[in-house]
Structure formats: C-alpha cells, structure tokens
Write a structure and sequence with these properties.
globular, four-stranded antiparallel β-sheet, 9 helices, about 230 residues, single chain
Length: about 230
C-alpha cells in the first residue's frame, strides 16, 4: 500500500492487485460502499495519519477511484469542501492523476527507484503520451463510472444540448462507463462537463489504457453520441 500526500486536505493511496486479492475486494466494492470497502478505507485513513500526517475531515470526504490496468487501484481522499467547481481545476486534477499513475508504474517496474528520492520522476510524468509539458499535456478525454443508468441519464440531462463532445457508453450489471472526448468542444466546456460528471458519478480513468480495458471487458451499449441519445 503506497500513500502520497497531495495537500492539506487530500491524500492518494495505491492498492496493488495482490493487495486487493488479499483483502478479497475489488473496485465495485468501493463503488457500492460495501462493508469490506469501509473497513479498507478506515485502514487506509489510519495509515495515512501515521505515515503522512493526514487529518481526515470531521464529517465527510470525497473518494475518487481510478483503475490502473493490470496493476491495481488509486484511491483519492479529499475534503467535501474541496472546490472542484472551476473548469481549470478538474483539468489539473486529471493531469496530476496521470502523473501519479506514471510514477506508480515506474516504481512497480523498478522498485529501487523508490530508494532514490532525488530521481526526477516528475519530469517523466510530463512526457506521457509523447507530449511536452504545458497546456498541450492536458488530457482530452476521461472515463466516468456510474451506479445505475439513471445516474448517467440525469447527467446527460443537465448538459447543454450543443456541447460538441464525443461520448460512448459501456457497462453491465448496473455499473456504467461513460467515455467523454473533447472533440470540437473548447477545453473550458469540456472541463465543465467533467466537473458535472463528478456530481453524478466518479472518475474512472484518464490514461490511454482506460478505454482499451473497458472495450475488452465491458459490452458497448451506445457506440456514438451517447449523451444525445440518453437525453432523448
């Protein structure tokens, strides 16, 4: 279990597939807030308090879940009052998650790198997908997961009808994955759509392997213009 302090109100935890098997738990337990998931979350919080001085909020926190294909899960804990309402902030969040995944992959592939804090892992994170650091490294797509089709439909209903993003819907057994791509929309409108998605579902992934994994394991329900079709 690897825990990283992001700021005063946010921590991230990486759980490997081996640890998930040991806990006899998977990402769906966290989505449905099962008793097993609650026990693991409590253990993570206690460990975060000891290792990085994390102080959990008194009342409630947000839990974001991201699957790292073939490796495990990244759980992000943040105070409910953290402000993700600005479009630029959600894009920064996606970029930071991408960097965190890259750092985690590097440490899994080369455990010795964790013993050399002077290594420049951050610079590698800026080069994901062959892009230079700066505005061009902003992700132009994201996948969100919803519990039940009603959540996806409610989300689609609040979006403007002229939003020019690409969208696809996958899922089964009551868990649905919505793929959003910026396409012809501005970054501001795309990022606002991502922010609104967090009100109805959770961020599932923003790295290049996410959609490939979903296509491999989940049936495609709507191959194109999913948001428009869900709005009716």
């Amino acid at each position: 279990m690897r825990i990283e302090r992001v700021d005063d109100k946010t921590v991230r935890c990486f759980l490997s597939n081996e640890e998930l098997e040991e806990y006899e738990i998977d990402y769906k337990d966290f989505l449905t807030r099962s008793e097993k998931a609650k026990e693991v979350v409590q253990e993570i919080i206690l460990q975060a308090e000891e290792e990085v001085g994390y102080k959990p909020p008194k009342y409630a926190f947000d839990l974001q879940i991201m699957v790292v294909p073939e490796q495990g899960l990244v759980l992000t804990f943040s105070d409910k009052d953290n402000d993700f309402k600005e479009g630029s902030q959600i894009m920064e969040y996606l970029k930071e998650m991408t960097k965190f995944l890259q750092k985690t992959k590097e440490q899994l592939q080369n455990p010795k790198s964790a013993e050399h804090p002077g290594s420049d892992t951050e610079s590698h994170g800026d080069q994901i997908k062959g892009k230079k650091s700066g505005r061009d490294d902003r992700p132009d797509y994201a996948v969100f997961v919803f519990e039940g089709i009603r959540g996806v439909m409610n989300y689609a209903a609040v979006l403007p009808g002229n939003l020019r993003v690409e969208s696809e819907l996958y899922g089964q057994d009551g868990i649905y994955y919505l793929y959003l791509k910026k396409s012809h929309a501005s970054y501001e409108r795309f990022s606002r759509a991502c922010v609104q998605a967090l009100e109805f579902g959770r961020l599932y992934g923003a790295d290049e392997n996410t959609l490939l994994r979903i296509k491999e394991h989940e049936p495609c329900l709507i191959a194109e213009k999913a948001l428009k079709k869900l709005r009716g």
